């Protein structure tokens, strides 16, 4: 009686979402495979001979790595600060975080554009302080992308870090302080062990999401700083090579999903989520 | 609070300073964006020239802004509905699986977060190319957005299914209730707050998502994020920042309202449950 009961339940609850995955994820991925073999499958070899692709691939990897390291470090500090700051200040930090989490990436990127354009807000600030005379050349450079990307990704590290910090046992902390642990020892042996799993899962997430970055590099990095995503768009919409676009897409999907699955296996990333 | 402060000792000041700078990185771009939308001039400039709300008026009366807004609302609502149905079913199914298969299914449901949107959009675009009928419809766009929103709904609902008391089910089974009845009368009511929260979260993700719209919209129409993206690369007018400000404020108001309502709801629940 009991097993059949669970069987029906499983059938009704599990199969519909699995069918949805097959349609919404399986079919598009199969289409990528079909498209990439459109011209006999040479696209997989051809893309690695294109300097524009290898350059974009390298640029994307470097960008994702740099953004991940910066975001994880700053996110850890931000999470620590929300925990350790006076109530009014942590309230402000939290409000800023929520504001950023709930406004769209396009809106946030446009905000950075207004800061970085040659006569934008940064120029206005520096020139009213008398520090620069000429309009600044920051917009559409590699340097222009990084702060915006870190800002976009920050909530994905800060939120798990905050959860981890709130689980630190105050008694343990008290005990450490009472027995004379200095700030370095407390940081190293109480706070860091609690924070580390959250930082790893946040960092993995930021890394895989950064590999697929499109909007922010497009608007702030400009055509000289194409990411793999930008190059895919170019292949499909401008250069009319859907087979190349599809094989680059497959590579990108495979890379992000494999990295995610490995990290999930090693660090149980998806279990940190709820 | 005192322990946290004293335990960090001399590290506390630099930590607060760095977090202040990071916080400014989150806040200042938004501030600049809002400020430029007040301008009475015709150019997108910082500092703004004078103060007026004329660009807000322009946006609200311009169908080229209002139609994308309406389309975004409709597409996001449809995609969120799908994500809520399948995400909730998935979260409930995971509860009934062996730990091993639960782990596999959970990983599968979270994978779309890692999916690079451009690559996924190209795949969906390929589906559109194969089936001509889909090209002038919103089917692939809505399915794709639903898949992107699903992990967020799943995560938020899963947080609540983990807290369900297994004895409730056992008691209901003993009393002779079939599983559809248990689902409807016992489990779903307890999950409602998280389902609603997941829906709000998923909706905001879909509403802001732009990449799928770039590839999948039928010709001649735009969603709001796509309209903003094209406005930021073509006509750099204060209408862009006025629209951005309004939609962000709307999101914040809806969320504040939602947070307030769910707190009130939680209070009422506590009152009901305490004898």
How would you describe what is shown here?
The complex is a heterodimer of chains A (274) and B (275). Chain A is mainly alpha-helical and 274 residues long. Chain A has one domain (52-64, 86-272): MetI-like (MetI-like fold, Orthogonal Bundle), CATH 1.10.3720.10. Helix content of chain A is 80%, strand content 0%. Chain A has helices at 2-36, 43-49, 51-84, 87-102, 105-116, 121-128, 142-166, 170-178, 183-211, 215-221, 228-237, 242-267. Chain A is globular and about 70 Å long. The two termini of chain A are 32 Å apart. Chain B folds into two domains: 2-37; 63-273, Orthogonal Bundle (MetI-like fold), CATH 1.10.3720. Chain B starts with a helix and ends with a helix. Chain B is globular. Chain B has helices at residues 2-8, 12-37, 54-61, 63-95, 99-110, 117-130, 132-135, 139-161, 166-174, 179-208, 211-216, 224-233, 238-273. Chain B is mainly alpha-helical. Chain B is built from 13 helices and no strands. Classes of the chains: A mainly alpha (274), B mainly alpha (275).
Poorly predicted ranges of chain A (pLDDT <50, ≥5 residues)? none
Number of domains in the coordinates of chain A? 1
- What is the N-to-C order of secondary-structure elements of chain B (H for helix, E for strand)? HHHHHHHHHHHHH
Measured by residues with Cβ under 8 Å of the partner chain's Cβ, the largest interface is: A-B, 106 and 96 residues
| Unreliable spans of chain B | none
Largest pleated sheet of chain B: none
CATH architecture type of chain A: Orthogonal Bundle
CATH topology of the largest domain in chain B: MetI-like fold
The major beta sheet of chain A can be summarized as: none
Q: Would you identify the CATH architecture of the largest domain in chain B?
A: Orthogonal Bundle
Strand count of chain B: 0
Instruction: Tell me the β content of chain A.
Output: under 5%
| CATH homologous superfamily title of chain A | MetI-like
Beta-strand residue fraction of chain B? under 5%
Distance between termini of chain B?
34 Å
Strand-pairing-aware structural class of chain B: mainly alpha
How many H/I helical runs of chain B?
A: 13
Query: What is the CATH superfamily of the largest domain in chain B?
Result: MetI-like
